[in-house]
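User: Here's a chain of 249 residues. Predict its fold as tokens.
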Amino acid sequence: MINFSTWAKPEVKLNSPEIILQADEWCPYNCKPNSALPGFMVEIAKAIFEPHGYQVKYQKLNWPRALHNARTGKINGVIGALYSDAPDFIFPENSQGSVVNAIWARKDINLNYKSVEDLKGYTLGAIRNYSYGIELDKYIKSNRHSAAKIQLISGANPLESNLKKLLHNRIDLIIEDNAVLKFSLQNRVIKQQFKHIADIASEPIFIAFSPARPDSKKLAKLLSDGMKNLRLSGELATILHNYSVPDWQ
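Assistant: Prediction complete.
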């Protein structure tokens, strides 16, 4: 078994085969490309694939377009997919993270959330083409044409847009992963303006590969096997520590 903590990783050459992955910015899972902290799932991909001679390229793009590009084979895959996001994609057996979707609100909102029925009377902000679990997905689909109930948003940084809408009373609630929202609000004065209402569901999250490319099954297996090695060697813990994210297993 390879010990990644002691093994000298080979230099990735410019002519190495590329693995192109796209997603909209969703720190700490995937952040600003080519930065010191590009996101822990980006670092996981690089740590696993580059020793096999691949060059990992992460590109920021809005989620619907990223899914389309992967689905049609223009790129290798997407970062941060749930099974329900893209059931036709090729998923590795072992996950690259775990999401905990939660309802967040302005501090003046008093909501005792038990089910989607409790959302009546509030305007919920969500991200277009994201999956939030069966119950909330059904609620969003049923009310997506009512701006008083649901407001869907897309773009390169949809979370920031939703936070601004929340601050300006254009919506009352948002649904977002706890790690993402906490990472976004850390060291920001505006974090005092929001509060956590309820956790909705926890699901594994993946780097998922194009159903249209012949190498996707191979890449998914390399990634799945690599997760075991990263965890055993301690390198996964080192990567996660830099983002203040605990291991989900």
